[in-house]
Automatic annotation (TrEMBL):
Organism: Zopfia rhizophila CBS 207.26
GO CC field: cytoplasm
Alphabetized Gene3D superfamilies for the sequence: D-Amino Acid Oxidase, subunit A, domain 2 (3.30.9.10), FAD/NAD(P)-binding domain (3.50.50.60)
Residues covered by the FAD dependent oxidoreductase domain: 77-457
SUPFAM superfamilies named in the record: FAD/NAD(P)-binding domain
Cross-referenced Pfam families: DAO (PF01266)
Name of the protein in its database record: DAO-domain-containing protein
Length: 506
């Protein structure tokens, strides 16, 4: 990969951008909201973790605690650590590529109970907002390729759901990015223009700069502009479960799912062994030729060489039952990225083809308070027991009461209004993009992790891309951005990165 002369990979981890002539900042991250201390890590919390809305819906599903065999297999060709959308998709493509090889998928807790089972239910490809950040970090060519890959990922996910008739509450429609401040709208307009001038594809994005029209389209009182393009919301656990069930049924003798099995470390046996790796778990050891790390935020706990590269961060999602004034024919019909003046963001998933429950995620000001608290309590960095965090919920309530006409004065009966919030662990990458490939200095160990809170818009292409690499294909055949590849040079460079500013001037 040839980077531009001005590329600076440290900027990949910033969460907002600004211009020289304004104090406002534009959010360029869908979830992650502030810099985190590097070097902290942890294993999945055992007991007491919060229960997401998605996991609440499937409490009777036998896949939650599935073990294909009562005893942990002693050997396998490949061990995949993690049963979220990454590990599950890697298992699917691995079995398709090598139907004769055995695969064991390890999950520390319930099936798909990590980040995939705890997110806000979006598959929203970034189609312009992150361009300037990626351009400054990696150069124009890679920036355009990152955004194109997110579009490709979304299309692959939708195609799979439709082709396989997956019952996962899929919605396809316009997502709206809505700046609420004139200065933020100015930055957004500049970024969009630069992306278009650079050759970025924008013909599928409808832009409205008239605040009056923007308010009509978005139904947000102080909207200054609207950027609309196709995206999706869905029930992520149900999608992942469909893929896993298919793999287990098609390859009953080759695929083994083992829940409640925490992988603790990976070592190498003595030279006389015919297999390359030993995965040590709390139920015993598994010898194998290949290990895939699909644990995202927990990766460095198992493989210490990833410490400082991938950092776990708790993040909140709020569930709201809208008042009757915002239901039925008046229900919200779009997903949103609401861009606040201080670089914060609300993501909104209205589940408008399902139950109409509204999910609020994103990096609102209250999330920043939680981030600051975690900085002072790093031992809680992998703790997803947080629920009903007042600072986060308060910001959400203030937003809907101010911006959604009639929400504040609506009559809330029992069962309406704020209902619940839960936490999940984001795997923050030190340069803002995932790590895909064979871990340097660790032969036979592969990784697809560090999705930086944006995994649903990356994994449906990153997972099959990794399997191609495992099969000997060159990086170019993956179709992924070059900057996703984990290489010795990238690792060495990033291990020398210190915390940088949260905001970049573009």
């Amino acid at each position: 990969m040839r980077e531009s002369d001005t590329a600076n990979t440290e900027i990949g981890n910033i969460n907002a951008i600004t211009l020289l002539d304004t104090s406002a900042v534009l959010n360029v991250e869908e979830y992650a909201s502030s810099q985190s201390s590097q070097g902290r890590t942890g294993f999945p919390k055992q007991g007491g973790q919060s229960l997401s809305y998605w996991l609440q819906q499937v409490r009777c599903d036998p896949l939650l605690d599935h073990r294909t065999t009562p005893e942990l297999p002693k050997e396998a060709d490949t061990v995949i650590i993690g049963s979220g959308i990454t590990g599950t998709l890697i298992a699917k493509h691995h079995l398709k590529t090598w139907p004769e090889k055995s695969v064991v998928i390890l999950e520390a807790r319930e099936f798909c109970s990590g980040a995939t089972g705890r997110n806000a239910g979006h598959c929203k490809p970034d189609q312009w907002r992150g361009f300037r950040k990626y351009e400054k970090a990696f150069g124009k060519e890679q920036a355009i390729k990152i955004l194109k890959n997110e579009q490709d990922t979304w299309e692959a996910l939708v195609e799979y759901v439709r082709a396989n008739d997956v019952d996962c509450d899929l919605w396809v429609g316009d997502t709206l990015d809505v700046p609420l401040d004139d200065e933020v709208a100015k930055i957004a307009r500049d970024v969009f223009k630069r992306y278009k001038d650079a050759g970025g594809k924008v013909d599928h994005i409808r832009v409205t700069h008239d605040p009056i029209e923007a308010t009509k389209i978005s139904r947000i009182k102080t909207a200054k502009a609207v950027y609309a393009w196709p995206a999706s919301t869905l029930q992520p656990w149900k999608l992942t479960a469909h893929i896993m069930r298919s793999a287990l049924s098609k390859f009953p003798k080759r695929a083994s799912l083992q829940t409640y099995t925490t992988a603790r470390s990976v070592t190498y046996p003595n030279s006389s062994s015919s297999q390359k790796c030993i995965v040590h778990t709390d139920r015993g050891d598994i010898s194998c030729n290949t290990v895939v790390h699909a644990t995202n935020g927990y990766s460095a706990a198992i493989e210490p060489s990833l410490k400082c590269l991938i950092t776990p961060t708790p993040h909140m999602c709020n569930k709201m039952i809208p008042p009757r004034t915002w239901c039925g024919s008046k229900a919200i019909q779009n997903s949103y990225g609401v861009l606040l003046p201080d670089g914060a963001l609300f993501s909104i998933n209205p589940r408008c083809t399902a139950d109409g429950v509204v999910m609020f995620g994103g990096s609102n000001p209250g999330q920043r308070e939680l981030d600051e608290w975690i900085e002072k309590h790093p031992e809680r960095c992998a703790d997803d027991s947080f629920a009903r965090v007042e600072s986060v919920t308060k910001c959400m309530m203030q937003f809907v009461e101010k911006e959604f006409e009639g929400w504040k004065n609506g009559r809330f009966g029992p069962g309406e209004g704020f209902d619940y919030s839960w936490s999940g662990i984001i795997g923050r990458s030190v340069d803002g993009v995932p790590f895909v490939g064979e871990i340097p200095g660790k032969p036979g160990q592969w990784i697809c992790a560090g999705h930086h809170g944006h995994g649903m818009a990356r994994i449906f292409t990153a997972a099959p891309g990794l399997v191609k690499l495992m099969n000997g294909a060159p990086w170019t055949e993956t179709g992924l951005p070059d900057v996703y590849q984990i290489t010795p040079e990238r690792v060495e460079r990033l291990l020398g990165v210190s915390n940088v500013s949260k905001v970049a001037i573009v």
